[in-house]
Amino acid sequence: MAGFLSKYKGITRVEIEPPSPDHTEGYWAEVKTHLTRGETKAANDALYRLVMKLEVGGESNEDAPTAEASGEMHMEEYSTAVAMAAVVAWNLTDEDDVALPLEPDEDKLASFNRLPSEVFSQILAVVQGVAKDKTKK
To answer: Which residues in the chain belong to E strands, given as ranges?
Structure first.
């Protein structure tokens, strides 16, 4: 009998390019259908950063410090963190048909950074679409 978490171990395939005479398999990436709480937290942490600013010696009272807090949104870092967590396999290659590595994380990030923007967006759209489909049920 399978355990509870086994229900959340699904994988879906993103068809990036259909098969062709040059590449009979086509190009694809496999992504998780569910991210863990830890993976989601890491992506959310990358998305939003709190910035604190403390000044001593304000105009009204020279000795009273003033504090200011603001947030910064980092959509690119968020998207990268989601993709890093979600992509588990692919058959994408470089110009010389050498596989783009997915391990270790530094090489995986370098592989993502080499992808054309539209391919990265296509993968990310499937990952985010899978998440949206689950919330509708």
So the answer is: 11-17, 27-32, 48-55, 66-73, 87-90
